[in-house]
Amino acid sequence: DEALTHYLNRTTLAKQRRKIINQVKHLIDEVQRHNGVFVLLWHPFEKYPRCLFAYQAILAYLNTKEAYMTSCKALTDWWSRRAAVNVMEERDSPNAVTWRIRAEKEVENIWFRVISSNGSFVVPEVGEVVKKGNEQFVKISNLQSNNDVLIRWIL
After folding, report:
1. Coil, helix or strand at residue 52
2. At what angle do helices 51-64 and 17-33 cross, to 10 degrees?
3. What pLDDT shows up at residue 2?
4. Low-confidence ranges of the chain (pLDDT < 70)
5. DSSP secondary-structure letter at 100?
6. Residue 127: closest CA among 115, 114, 138, 112
7. How many other C-beta atoms can be found within 10 angstroms of the C-beta atom of residue 153?
C-alpha cells in the first residue's frame, strides 16, 4: 500500500486497476505453480477510488483456485500447532516405510501430501487417504498430544 502511494496517485490507480488486478492474478498463478503461500494484505479501502472492487475481484479469483483463505491470527495459530508436530521416518524394508507422527499438543486436520503415486497406505482410524486430482494426501483428523500415529507406505 505504501509503495503504491509513492509511485502512483489516486487517479492513476483508478485507471490502472485492471492492470493491477491482472498482475496480482499472475503472481497468484506463479505462487500456485510452485506450491507456495500467497499472502494478501490489502488496506485501506477508503484511500483509493474503487479499491474495494479490485480487492473483491482478487478474492473471487482466489476462490476459483480453491485457495485456503484465512485471517493472520488463524494462520499464526496453525503454524504454532504445526510446529508442535514431529514426523519420524522408519525404513521397514526396501519396499516399505513407516512414519511415526507425534504432537506435543493436540492438533486437528493435519494433511500430508504424498509425492509418489505408486504403492498403498496403511492408515490408522484417525486418518484417511484423500485424492484430489492426481495427488494423494493423508489426512489426520485429530492428533492427540504425545500419542503416536503410525502411517505405513508399502510399494
Report:
1. helix
2. 30
3. 45
4. 1-14, 43-50, 116-117
5. E
6. 138
7. 20
The model's pTM is: 0.52
How buried is 103 (Cβ within 10 angstroms: 0-12 exposed, 13-18 middle, 19+ buried)?
buried
Q: Whole-angstrom Cα distance, residue 107 to residue 144?
A: 7
Give the three cell numbers for residue 12: 492513476
State how far the Cα of 138 lies from the Cα of 130, in Å rounded to an integer. Answer: 6
Q: Which residues, in sequence order, are bridge partners of residue 140?
A: 110, 127
Say how far apart CA 73 and CA 54 lie, in whole Å.
24
CA-to-CA separations, 94 to 66, 113, 122, in angstroms, rounded: 37, 21, 16
pLDDT of residue 8: 56
**Element containing residue 90 per DSSP (H, E):** strand 85-93
152: Cβ contacts below 8 Å, ≥ 6 apart: 92, 96, 97, 98, 99, 121, 122
Residue of 91, 88, 96 lying closest to 153 (CA atoms): 96
